[in-house]
Amino acid sequence: MHHGKLRGDKLHLGWLLKELVSDGSLVQADGNSIAAKQCNKEEALMHPLHIIAAKQCCHAKTQQPFNLEDLCQWLAAKAGLDFAPIDPLKINVPAVTAEISFAYAQRYGILCIEVNAHDLGVATKQTFVRTCIESLEQTSQKSCDR
After folding, report:
1. H or E stretch including 34?
2. Are 137 and 144 spatial neighbours (Cβ–Cβ below 8 Å)?
3. Total domains, the chain
4. Domain of 72?
5. Same domain, 124 and 68
6. What is the pLDDT of residues 38-48, one digit of tens each?
């Protein structure tokens, strides 16, 4: 992981582009092109990975267009986290909402996707912001799989 990316930092488009280029996944010209374009109002509300996927640049090595799932897997690996595709139909909504309120989840950009007697499975849109996860572990007395 890039040493300038601290635990509490939120994801930024520029940092993601720089890391994709340094990993050899994105050619510099594509990274520069994405970074140089002004975000419209809709893009300003999007997660930075959505913006990159929407530009449909190709992977530098495979020449295949990036899709959102590929980018999420790349970021999870970079952060040392597991990647879990989310199937809304498989989430036990009453169980997960009993552990994490909607307001808390929305505020911190997290989603509880699984719960059992000892663990919470939590998805996050801010991969490097872990303080809310640590707080959840303390209040729930459960370990959070991230």
Report:
1. helix 28-36
2. yes
3. 2
4. 13-79
5. no
6. 777 777 778 89
